[in-house]
Amino acid sequence: MSGVSVLPDALEDALEESLGRFPVPELTRNVQTLIRQYREGFDRSVPALGSEAAVAAYAGYRMPATYSAVAAALRQVALLAPGFAPRTHADVGGGTGSAVWAANAVWPGLTDVTVLEQSASAIAFGRRLAARASAAAVREARWRQTVLDRGTAAPAADLVTMSYVLGELSPAVRDDVVRSLALESARHTGMLVIIEPGTPAGYAGIAAARRLLAEAGLHIVAPCPHDGECPIVEGRDWCHFAVRLNRSALHRRVKDGTLSFEDEKFSYVAASARPWPRAESRVVRHPLKRKGLVTLRLCTNGDGLADHPVSKRQGEAYREARDVAWGDAWPPPAV
Ligand SMILES: C[S@@+](CC[C@H](N)C(=O)[O-])C[C@H]1O[C@@H](n2cnc3c(N)ncnc32)[C@H](O)[C@@H]1O
């Protein structure tokens, strides 16, 4: 996962235009509220994206980051499963549509997109952004106002995504929603991808979801190289990855004087009833590069977490190890 994530031009322009309709102090106030909620936790009795200004603040402040994280996770899936060519996509808790844009960037063959979201303001904002997309599937996405609860029927689609939502659901609803998505995925043999912030809490949500997906009989496609227990000891470490993105104009306005880029950390799991090929192992830290030696921290199939030194004497493997990045499969999948 190297390089800098870039938003599609149409999304960048649509965001700039939509945010321009709000006074900067109002956006700044709403961004500060969001930052406080992410730090201190959400009051689930009050919808976080309840007002238009809150949605605009979310879109300006968070959407570039969630878009980049979702695209990075989906790209890893696409690398492992080049034969996976989804036509239909359902995005659960879609907010302003980050995952819709990201899925389209990775699989431009998508033709039919549905977004399930509880907030009418988020739907209105997301629709306005999507109207500017060049891809018909994004422009014509169906946005359904839906409150996910214990009885919500999971959507059937080739690709189902749920990004940055688990942490906003109560624990009981969370497990039921994941189980129901898993069962529907098993029936449809589609790909289910769940993404959360790359924090200890976000990883704990992904680890719990991963157990439920495996219990439902799904194969884990990524990032794990196996279906077994995660070798990471919760509380001591957490499995996460990072993607670099340029900070949006709004982000720079509300956080004066900080860096022009940020690294969005995320955890994810992709699973399917179909056993797609998966990584032999996964790079779970920035590779340590010294003269003539690269050491990869790997999550392996069978050996848990292990440090894997690759020296210059190993020729081609060394050249590949110098190019591999945190989050990539090792060895690199053949393309
Ligand atoms: C942090 S935002 C993530 C939005 C989007 N998926 C993204 O990655 O940018 C969480 C979204 O989940 C939605 N959400 C939270 N609880 C929900 C529920 N019970 N039913 C439907 N949507 C819900 C919120 O309204 C919000 O749009």
Automatic annotation (TrEMBL):
Database matches in InterPro entries: Mt_RNA_Methyltransferase, Ribosomal_Rsm22-like, SAM-dependent_MTases_sf
Gene Ontology biological process terms, A to Z: methylation; translation
Keywords associated with the record: Iron, Iron-sulfur, Metal-binding, Methyltransferase, Transferase, Transit peptide
One Pfam family it belongs to: Rsm22
Keyword Protein biosynthesis annotated: no
Top-level lineage group: Bacteria
GO-annotated molecular function: iron-sulfur cluster binding; metal ion binding; methyltransferase activity; structural constituent of ribosome
Cellular component GO terms, alphabetical: small ribosomal subunit
Official protein name in the record: rRNA methyltransferase
